[in-house]
Amino acid sequence: MTLAALAFSSLGIAAFTAVGCSTQRERSATISTADLRVDPRLAEGQRVFMAQCNQCHVGGAGGLGPSLNDKCIPSFLIKFQVRHAPGTMPKFSRGIISDAQLDDVIIYLKFLRSHPDGEI
Amino acid sequence: MPVSRKRSIIRSIYTACVATACIAAVAGCSVHGPSGGGGQALWDGQRHVSVADVWLPPGYKIEPVVIGLNFPTGVTFDDAGKVYVTESGYSYGEIWSEPRLVRVDAKDAVVVIARGSNGPWNGATFHDGNFYVAEGGEARGGSILKIDRDGNTTALVQDLPSTGDHHTNGPVIGPDGYLYFGQGTATNSGIVGVDNYQYGWLQRYPQFHDIPAKDVTLAGVNYESRDPFSAAPKLARYQRWFPIFAPSPRLVLTGAYSSFGTPTKPGQVVPGQIPFTGGIMRIPLAGGQPEMVAWGMRNPFGLAFAPDGKLFATDNEYDVRGSRPVWGTGDVLWEVTPGKWYGWPDYFAGQPINNADRFGAPDAPVPRRLLASTPNKPPLPAAKFAVHASADGLDFSRDDGFGFVGDAFVAEFGDMAPTTGTVQDPVGFRVVRVERAGGIVHAFAFNRGRANAPASKTNGGGLERPVAARFDPSGNALYIVDFGVMLTDARGVHPAENTGVLWKITREDTK
């Protein structure tokens, strides 16, 4: 693989990540309590998201930080960003968000992406 | 070099490139980029109203009650169920008008009950035949006013320390029969600075500063800033381009709980006083000396008692401005425990703010601790709102006719970026519902569209800047006080008079 191919594929992935599958989506409103009742991991993800993430990524949409609900971000990248946080985002250690909780947050984020204009 | 080794290096480079590119896309470099605040809009100068532009949960409807209010801030109801609104009489941006208490008789008809001259009037409550108004008193200090049905006004308490950034707010009557009110701080984070000069009040009251409720011992940390009172400032702006000819600005040191230009020493004790800035006080309904309920808050704007009798308060947290900017602090909802210190000016939501990774603003030093010791371990909030949302007036649902009994409904005024800090996307401009268990914040009423924004930015007819939310006596209708249009830019905020709206949200099956 040449360096040009490397750079090209990197840019392609970055563009895909930035644009995602989202251009026609509205932001997330919130999440159905019915879904939460049947999925405790989703409920835990929501709880942790509200405590640690919602201030900057409001309901998964943008605010102080970028929107998350309009991008198809791979789970490993979310984990990397949360733990190491290059850029202006603070990092979250395992003492603040455990590995299990981070997995639940990712479940919650995926739910937000799939319910872009959900009900209460 | 062996082929396998070469492949390994290429794979590592590839992984690093992919990760870096993706993280850049996810994280953005945005905080350094241009701000995308909700007030940063090209507005056509007309307040449009269209209920179709407001998203609500299925089964709910919204309607405008009255349009064209002048900086409305609060709503209350008399014993006959009639609706009354406070108009502020003052807005950030140094716009002065007449504070008023008005009765809403029809969609475009209001009757003036009382007038004042010392705005902002920040909300009212009705109890036993009288109205009680929080007079913010930007010009002459805060008061709690008692107004009878004929408009006769008496001050139950006055000379509250309210001539700074934040004011006397949100009166509520407690189950104990006392009147509770909030008092905001003079400053953003404890240090009087050039930002306060730009806000206007430091020019009127150069000796004003924050006041603790109890004695505090200072760490002796001082912040250097230019002196806007010196002759230099008008010329100093040109120093950047003509460094030889323009004079250097005079620099001064200012410490915590001290007037501008007054440094502090380690171990210095600032005596507590009541009334104080940054907390909740209460007075008997007949008037009298205020008592401290809670302190160490920043701007407890909204107060409400939950159905179980517990007192809750919204608190507007730090801005990225002034000599001691603090980054990344969302507003909070406190369950108020009497006597507690809630952390200002050294904590946010139970966390110390001298943490560069979490609270250090880009291109600014990390906030240093101002207090040598903390009065108590600061409590954790009941809920956190978005950074710069400006979570303001709130109320609790009490009736199944509306639903969500026990949940808090909070009006989010919306960001004032870039003056209070930059944002990537507009924040606030909506009403949220808060589940107390778990502190879950649900969007409840907001403008339709791909991006969250006030109506002036979406060119729609929905919400602009919700500042108060209160249920009517029946509990079936939630009234939303919408302050109106306030545009923002790097020069400051630019409120538009007579653009306020009172909205009413009910269930669709409510008659």
How would you describe this structure to a colleague?
Chain A has 120 residues and is mainly α. Helices cover 52% and strands 0% of the residues of chain A. Chain A has a single domain, classed as Cytochrome Bc1 Complex, Chain D, domain 2. Chain A contains 5 helices and no strands. In chain A, helix 3 (40-52) packs across helix 5 (99-114). Chain A is globular, with a radius of gyration of 15 Å. Mean pLDDT of chain A is 76; it is low at 11-28. Chain B is mostly beta strands. Chain B has one domain: 6 Propeller (Neuraminidase), CATH 2.120.10. Helices cover 9% and strands 36% of the residues of chain B. In chain B, the strands form 11 sheets. In chain B, strands 1-30-29-28-27 form a 5-stranded antiparallel sheet, with no helix packed on it.
Instruction: Please report the distance between the alpha carbons of the first and last residues of chain A.
Output: 49 Å
How does the major sheet of chain B shape up?
Answer: 5 strands, antiparallel
The oligomeric status of these chains comes to heterodimer
Tell me the name of the CATH class of chain A: Mainly Alpha
Helix content of chain B: under 10%
Low-pLDDT runs of chain B? 21-32
Mass-distribution shape of chain A = globular
Rg of chain A, Å, rounded: 15 Å
List the helices and strands and how they pair.
The complex is a heterodimer of chains A (120) and B (511).
Chain A: H1 3-19, H2 33-38, H3 40-52, H4 75-84, H5 99-114
Chain B: H1 3-27, E1 54-55, E2 60-69, E3 72-77, E4 83-87, E5 90-91, E6 95-96, E7 100-106, E8 109-115, E9 121-127, E10 130-135, E11 142-148, E12 153-160, E13 168-173, E14 178-183, H2 194-199, H3 201-204, E15 216-217, E16 222-226, H4 233-236, E17 251-255, E18 269-270, E19 279-284, E20 291-295, E21 300-305, E22 311-315, E23 330-335, E24 347-348, E25 351-352, H5 356-359, E26 383-387, E27 391-396, E28 408-412, E29 430-435, E30 440-447, H6 455-458, E31 466-471, E32 477-482, E33 486-489, E34 492-495, E35 500-507
Antiparallel strand pairs in B: 1-30, 2-35, 3-4, 4-7, 5-6, 7-8, 9-10, 10-11, 11-12, 13-14, 14-19, 15-18, 16-17, 19-20, 21-22, 22-23, 23-26, 24-25, 27-28, 28-29, 29-30, 31-32, 32-35, 33-34
